[in-house]
Amino acid sequence: MKKSFNKDIEEIIYQVNHPFILEASAGSGKTTLLVERYVALLFYLVAYEEKSSIDAVRGLIALTFTRKAADEMKDRIRKRILESFQENNIENILEKLKRYNSTEKSIEGLSRRIISKKYDLLNAIGMLKISTIHSFGLSILKSYPVESELDPNSSPQDETGIEELSITLKDAFSEAFRSMIDSNDENFGFAVRIMGYQKVKRIMEEMMRLVGNHGFSVLEKKIRDGKYLIFENIKNVEEEATKRLLPLLQSIQDCIEKLKNTVRKNVIPSLERINLEIEKIKEERDVSALFSSSVIYSGKSEQVRESLLPLIDKFYLELHRLIFPVLWRVFLRIKEFYEQLKTKRKEIQFTDIEEKLLKLLKKDTKILSNLKSQIRFLMVDEYQDTSDIQKEILDTLVYNRDGNFDVIPFFVGDPKQSIYGFRNADVSIFGNTKMEFTDKNPSSFCKINFNYRSSGNMVSDFNEIFKDVFASDYIEYFDQLPFKDIQNGSGVFFIPAIGEKALEIFENSCHRTAILIKELVNSGNYQPGEIMVLFRRKTHVQILREYFDRILSESGIPYFHIDTGNILNAPEIQNLLVYLKALDNPESNFYFLPLLKSPFFRKNDIEITTLLMQNKSLYEAVCMENSEEIEIFNSLKKLKNQLTISELSERIINKTAYFAFLNTLPERKEATTNIMVFLDYLRKIQNVEMFQLTDFIYYLQEYGVMLEKPQIIGEKSNVVKVMSIHAAKGLESRVVFYISSWGGKRRAGFFIWGRRNFECPFGLKIFGYDTNSRILMDSIDAEEMAEEKRLCYVAFTRAKELFYYVGVGFYKGDNNEEKKKDGKDGWRSFINIDKSFVQKRLLTEVGEIQKKIVPKEEDLIKPVAERFLFLQKNDHKLKTIILPEIITITQLLDIEFLEKAFIKRYIVRSFPVDEALNEIAIADIELLAKDMTQADEGTYLHKVFQHSDKSNYALFIENSIQNESNLIKNKKDSIIKKAQNFFESDFYERYYVESCKSFKEWEINYPVDYKGNTILIKGAVDVYIQRDERKGIIVDYKLRIKKNIERYSRQLNYYAYFLEKIGYPVEELFLFDIDEGMEIHVRKNLDGIESILKKNLEKMEKYY
Question: What's the pTM?
């Protein structure tokens, strides 16, 4: 944006005593406007109100919601103030201030005053009050430590992210659980008996994670609003559960009996299963059976759903209300330990800062008055990301008791870009504040709708898309006005990705994105640094890398994943800093001991203890060893004051072969890239400050340096930038890809808050499905859908010339009746993008970037298996294939339960692939081959179970895991834990005894006759246990059993059928759930197995 503004914008900038709330669309230059307003206010305070430079800076507060945004604003304001003096622009600013504010003072006199204060102002720049709301709040709390009950040495915890727990919280868990176990805590004991230790731990972690992100008071309000604590005063939960829940189960059974007489016959088995479950609960006569019950109807009969679901919901609502007070008391114990540890370690959470600050401002009017007397203007950027408590804090500062302004507010935001719902941001706050302001003065609200970023075509596309997208929300979309001209070839385009499930669509999307980036760069029209790739969740990065490594890296196109974490916290950077600190002060054991434990020396605790016993410093003791590592260290020590920090760091890396070590890590690409980025940063700061090693170490420790990758890499570096939408906020690029990952509505497995997984962390199989939670889940769906629209808006509006939406709305072979009823017919229009607009801009062939052909929809949703039609049309001859001579039981199961997966795994690879196939088809086939051969955790655990026993399994894992892939090595702790689940289980004690004979990995080879051909059926039984001559047991080890129980039951019955055919009787069938450490009894049912086998062979023949 230029420094000349139209009249409306000038009025907003220079009308200093007027409160404003601005809605500024993406690309409208709001940061420039904020900078101009800040400089105008600063000069106004110094010139017109004759404040000292320091008082003027103190009276002007600017808040935003990220450190990155605060640092950027500080930097731009510094530059703008310097420019004002260098360009003799002072009088121009003062004239505009005079025009919009009543004053009789002469411009010449005011200008002389500003110029006379030049050096005072430049010195005061270092004291600019521009920060995040949390930094601002913490500074106030530390100014009043007694009144706020805060240790002035407290520091905020690192932002560990929504899915992670802080170190302090993990320690609190350990101490609290140990204490409750030692003291035989009644509530903890009851919860563990009902649910199991791991499940109780899981739900406690989930609740503490929510406290970390939202605050304790918000969590408690959610729980109490749902009336989940109405029974918190009941002492005997078991007695109350029996009294309240058994009658509700009886009412469900009564309803089932009535329904049997009216529903269709095919519905009755589902009802019988529910009835059988209830009878089992009654027979057990144990309250734990009530709390682990699975009374659920998942059928589609509307009659049953209308009659039965309300009763089931009522049962679970009562059950949840009975168990939750027990869990709540356990949770409060953990929270108590957590608060104690935070106090001890002088830590404070961001939610703590907000709560303490609001409490301080509300209870102490003197402190509030003192603050208001210092603050003249309050500016808030990104106001759409404000939470309820943050708004209350800001209102307390801005308004007086009469509802008038004590402090002049200037709030800027865009509701369409509110994407921090997981941090309690409430987009409705912007609209509410707008109404409050306009009630006092209608001119307080302004819209800024010029787009200075994107081409005219792009702006036109944004308007056409988002006026419909936001039409169903309470966000008002107003058309943006293009500042740039129409540009041929620019605009929004859509790329389809086909698959059965959301993950498959995402993988397909990643592949197509990489292909298209390669095409763009090879065309010579775009540099890698002009391309940005956005995605929804951090968890998708690993999938994306597989394709980008294969397609981009091998083509010499650099890409870099940019996240918002502090690069100094990366382990590979920490190791390097440990070396530098030891070089700076080797005689200090405090600095030298971490070096000994680092990858540079690799000493264990026993070796270090031996060194400490020599009554010398660790450095002196290690020097006595004359090892290669200490020789390298000493040679670097001599040079530490002769080299720059970047040169010294490079010497460390080269002499210790650090890159060779990093290349052994699973995340080697990320680790080596981080090192290169860090070295580049060191070179940059060397140009500004000539640090000696001691000064550099002091600088890092004293100033808490925050190095985020977007800040280091910048928008100018010539690499393809891959980042989350949240990290891209405020950035722009010529070309932007957005890889969609939305798989439809997300259901809340955790009934208090929206979580994606269906399984409840409480361990109750359908926890969350009660009357309250269904209402809540509907509201969560609506909230998440609305935020998804806003995320899309942020992604779209990063682009200057080209935007590609990858993964647009087609499911392979989607015959969903509900979608057909809605007229969607497989079309995923989750953000309401008009279907006709998408079809106009759909790119069907990735290699033909600008070729816009509207395909027939039925061609887009064909299964991958139908690719042979493409081959036929292009004169490719198919091989004549009959059924193979050998068929595995896995193939039989796939064709029955996962027919499309069977096609993908076994049929596509049978096509004659030659040069005529396009790159996409070849890459798909390579990926399938990779999927077929990749070993996983389950495979390795099978090996452990087959080749070790209870006495030696830990030793077996320790020795054998060294020969496994890094994927398996990284899961070592998980593998040991799951092996322990098996070998320490009651099931193992019962059946794996010396008196029983066991046959492990028993390979079955049984010939069957099919239409005159002999086909060998192959399979491998995990273990067949023979207790005596007549009784045999089959056991199969499984991970993730719940979703595949029917398939696994068929698998065991196949094994039983073929074993009995060759003379080995089978009495019982068991699945062993490795995750849970428990067995699942499977009903033996060999009736009809022959006909099922024949039917599955016929289905196979159709494809072969």
Answer: 0.63
